[in-house]
Amino acid sequence: MKPLAALCLGSLPQLCLAWPAPTSIGRRLSLFVSPASADKQPLDDASKWTLKKVSREIPADNRVWLGFHITSPGCEPQWCYMLVHVPDHAHEASFSNQPCVGSNFTASWGYRADEDAGILTLFNPHKSRTAWFGWNHVNNSTDLADVGPNATSETGKK
């Protein structure tokens, strides 16, 4: 069962709660503890990001669940989950500047019907770095391929 939401305690970043998708049978709450991160670099300023365990689900015609794990070598990984409300046609919807649950990153999603392609733009919490990720045939499966490492670029914001 894949979690679709996570809540990490600010004072204890290694302590997080995760819960399953609303469409899952049962509502079990699980607790996981991240390994100590004293020797890890901040993910926010990494030169490359990789997205793993990417999931995109359409529970209703006006909602998109999106979740993924943001990683980079030598950095503490972070989760990003979001439930985005769109006007309609969620399979073809685009959205922008949506906050991640589980981290302070934000993401935008663009859809191109010609290739059934999705393009995700990811921003770090300060919006000072960004990276782009893409998939073809996004409506064929709820699980999308891991993608990256993709280079991050500075946005000019401090």
Give short descriptive properties of this protein.
single chain; 158 residues; mainly beta; five-stranded antiparallel sheet; 13 strands; 54% strand
Explain what you see:
With 158 residues, this protein is an all-beta fold. The chain has one domain (40-154). The chain contains no helices and 13 strands. The strands form three sheets. Strands 4, 5, 6, 11 and 12 form a five-stranded antiparallel sheet that branches. The chain is globular and about 45 Å long. It starts with a strand and ends with a strand. The model is unreliable at 9-17 and 19-34 (pLDDT under 50). Keywords: Signal. Residues 1-18 form the signal peptide.
Question: Topology, please?
Answer:
Blueprint (H helix, E strand, L loop, with lengths): L2 E7 L2 E9 L9 E4 L14 E13 L2 E9 L6 E8 L9 E5 L6 E7 L4 E7 L5 E7 L7 E2 L2 E5 L1 E2 L4
Antiparallel strand pairs: 1-2, 2-3, 4-5, 4-11, 4-12, 5-6, 7-8, 8-9, 9-10, 10-13
